[in-house]
Design a protein that fits this description.
It is a single chain. An eight-stranded mixed β-sheet has the order 3-9-2-1-12-16-17-15, with helices on both faces. The chain has a four-stranded mixed β-sheet with strand order 8-4-10-11. The protein is globular, with a radius of gyration of 19 Å. The chain has a domain at about 1-110 and about 160-220: Acetylglutamate kinase-like (Carbamate kinase), CATH 3.40.1160.10. Helix 1 (about 20-40) packs across helix 3 (about 70-95) and helix 2 (about 50-65) packs across helix 3 (about 70-95). The chain is an alpha/beta fold. The chain is built from ten helices and 17 strands.
């Protein structure tokens, strides 16, 4: 099978952990173990989140005195290279002799996307109010309250087209395990002369992963995070993990923005576009999700029995 695996940002930085390299390398070793288990049996393409990392890079450039601030497309590219390097190295150590390559990936977005009028994607650390106000005054950044502090909010337009698809296909066809579309890809717009330019945004990696899986005609899409499954009535006494479910059954359920909503949307989109199986669950359960022993598995009714095999 051809499997697209999307690693959540927590694959590198878990909730509440310090954003240092030692923690990130430890977490990435666990992620690489989960990916390698699947790559030993199937063709794998990996993408990953970058919400914590791109936010920290923006903070570092702001503290270094850069004015104006580095644009998000450049920081997206920087985080894609940084995280891709760590993933690539860990996978090469576990898959001896298997070629692995990280590809900087530009993803076209629509400059008229409504997301630019309502930035709602959180990135970076939670800051005290005084620091958030300072950065707003200096760079014009937007913040929203999160817990006892404030977190930067940026636009998250929908991915329209992955510009490096030809290269991804060629590498995969040659037997290379490709790490691409990191952080949802580098957001770019294409003008009437077919010229590209960067866009101030961060693309949701689950949406890009679904698009990538569709364009590659993948059999399965795994959206991995730090929660074991999608839950009905999350946060209530009646919360219940969802196992097998169809896109139609998921469509009648409600998920709060910022929770599982983006993953549910991406899973349903992939299956409705012809994919055989979309799985959502914990990183360490990746192989079990694919084999039907863990997580939430989304499939069309006619595919659900086959997906269990």
């Amino acid at each position: 099978m051809r499997v697209v695996i999307a690693l959540g940002g927590n694959a590198l930085q878990r909730r509440g952990e310090a954003a240092d390299l030692a923690h990130q390398r430890h977490n990435l070793a666990l992620a690489a173990k989960a990916v390698a288990q699947i790559a030993e049996r199937h063709e794998v393409i990996v993408c990953h989140g970058n919400g914590p990392q791109v936010g920290w890079l923006a903070m570092q450039t702001s503290q270094a005195g850069a004015s104006p601030a580095y644009p998000l497309d450049v920081l997206d590219a920087g985080s894609e290279g940084m995280i891709g390097y760590l993933i690539e190295q860990e996978l090469e150590n576990r898959l001896a002799g298997r070629p692995v390559a990280t590809l900087l990936t530009q993803v076209e977005v629509d400059p008229a996307d409504p997301a630019f009028r309502n930035p709602d994607k959180p990135i970076g650390p939670v800051l005290p109010e005084a620091e958030a106000l300072r950065l707003t005054g200096r760079f014009g950044w937007r913040f929203a309250r999160e817990g006892n502090g404030w977190r930067r909010m940026v636009a998250s337009p929908k991915p329209q087209r992955i510009l490096e698809m030809a290269a991804i296909r060629q590498l995969a066809a040659a037997g290379t395990l490709v790490v691409c579309a990191g952080g949802g890809g580098i957001p770019v717009a294409v003008d009437g002369r077919n010229s590209m330019h960067g866009v101030e945004a961060v693309i949701d990696k689950d949406r890009t992963a679904a698009l990538l899986a569709r364009e590659l005609s993948a059999d399965a899409l795994l959206l991995l995070t730090d929660v074991d499954a999608v839950y009905r009535d999350w946060g209530t006494a009646s919360a219940c993990a969802i196992g097998e479910i169809t896109p139609a059954e998921l469509a009648v359920l409600t998920f709060a923005p910022g929770s599982m909503a983006a993953k549910v949307e991406a899973a349903c989109r992939f299956v409705l576009d012809g994919g055989r199986l979309a799985g959502i669950g914990r990183l360490e359960d990746a192989a079990d999700i694919l084999d039907g022993r863990a997580g939430t598995r989304v499939a069309r009714p006619q595919d659900s029995n086959q997906a269990r095999r």
